[in-house]
Amino acid sequence: MSYANLEIDIIRWGEARGIVANSTPEAQAKKTQEELNELFLAIHEDDRDAMKDAYGDILVTLIMGCSCADLDLVECLAGAYNEIKDRKGFLGPDGIFVKQV
Question: What is the mean pLDDT of the segment spanning 43-56?
Answer without folding.
Answer: 98
